[in-house]
Amino acid sequence: MTDAPDARPPLDATRLAPYGVEVVAQAGSTNALVADRAREGAPAWLVVVTEHQTAGRGRLDRTWETPDRAALTFSTLLRPGRPVQEWPWLPLVAGIAVVGALREHGIAAGLKWPNDVMLGDRKLAGILAERVETATGPAAVVGVGLNVSQTAAELPVETATSIGLATGVRLDRTTLLESVLTRLRQEYDAWSAGGGGRVRGDYREACVTLGREVRVSLPGGDALAGVAEDVDGSGRLVVAGTPVAAGDVLHVRPAQDPPGVP
Asked: Helix H segments across the chain?
């Protein structure tokens, strides 16, 4: 699938304004922009979305650029009331929201633990949550990069895909962002009310890692292999009876893949 520039309409800022969304033409990193706004005292649920991100950031300090108007690249400011030790659930909550919104539009997405949004065996979206210290206490910035209409040549790695490339479907990005933000509010409110126990069932339903033989790469060269049995109340993946946290994991891969597969 290829896209002419006029097949990539801009986001509709007027429709998005009621969701607290600010649309910017270009940004290095929307997470960095929202973090700055958080330190300046911005309220929760500020959302900044950019048409063209030039220095997006992910886990393990990965960076990428998104073509103009080809993706949904946005960050949301949250000011959680739950204890900070429960905040590792936030990127998982965002993952549930993205998968739910995609399925609402007929896209059969799933979550690779902890929060990679997958379409089949290819990555469709990444999520990064960061803690920010502010004058009124710690806040969280949750960023999402969702590939919508990129061609194969425009994607950063061969293991990625886009909605258009994988399905041929042209989704309106404004409509999709409205769906994601609506779902994010619902899942976040559930987590705020009851912690991980309130969203764990939704996460398990969305997670395609569970039930599979996996190999977990750990810092220092260690590895853990076995069946991904569950996600516990802290959001940790339980492999062969051993829970592992996202911050302690380099990669989770199907067990049959050789270690060199990205």
From this structure: 13-16, 30-39, 89-104, 163-167, 173-194, 196-206
> 209-234 in b/e burial notation, b at 16+ Cβ within 10 A?
bbebebbbeeeeeeebeeebebbeee
115 located within any domain:
yes
- The domain of 229 spans 213-254
Domain count, the chain: 2
- Beta strand 242-244 with 237-239 is antiparallel
One-letter amino acid of 194: G
Contact 35/57 with Cβ under 8 angstroms?
no
Which pairing describes strands 21-24 and 47-50: parallel, antiparallel, or unpaired? Answer: parallel
Q: Order of strands, edge to edge, in the sheet holding 213-217? A: 242-244, 237-239, 223-231, 213-217, 251-254
The pTM for the full model equals 0.92
- Based on the fold, state whether residues 125 and 180 are members of the same structural domain: yes
The Cα diameter of the chain in Å comes to 52
How many angstroms separate the CA atoms of 1 and 162, rounded? 10
Rounded to whole angstroms, the Cα distance separating 155 from 177 reads 20
* pLDDT tens track for 159-218: 999 999 999 999 999 999 999 999 999 999 999 999 999 999 999 999 999 999 999 998
Q: Does 225 share its domain with 196?
A: no
Domain membership of residue 261 (yes or no) is no
